[in-house]
Amino acid sequence: MKPLLTISRWIDGLNTAVGQAVTWLVLLVAVVSAGNAVMRKLFSLGSNAWLELQWYLFGAIFLLAAGYTFLRNEHVRVDVLSQKLPERTQVGIEIFGVVFFLLPAACLVFWLSIPFFWESWITHELSSNTDGLIRWPAKLLIPVGFALLILAGLSHLIKCAGFLRGLCPNPMKVSSGKSDEETLVEDILAQRQADIEAGQGR
Length: 202
Fold this sequence. Notes:
The protein is mostly helical.
């Protein structure tokens, strides 16, 4: 089990590195989007290449960060009922969901996306739009993104099994910390409390 947990840490390290790198794409896509809007509105200039680059970057953000998002337990879960169950039962349900839902679906999309990308690669497919970009980089994002998600799912399974055997913490408890919304609410409440105390001291 310990060698598997080591592999799990390597996978998590890979997804973490990719996820942190992808965060810079958010800034890049914001700059590209703003540049496209400014050129179109102020100078009546447009470029299909820059518009398609914007779409490619959006795709890269969502596909390449999928594994990292799963690692951080940030994907949407409907766990109103399961969260009331014992911790070990929750992990058992998690294993069932990953084995019978996540991995089969992700593997299917990965498998079907390979010829989709390969055909684009060997034919040097170009956008049908004037001055558009080549297509294969965008199509390559699909198998790469789902491969990272599959690895994240396997890593999660290893950690769930490790938890059930008492070898590692509960992977479902992993958290990236407080969300921005939670931090903002706490700041507002603290400021309000400070204002109330200041008013009472006058």
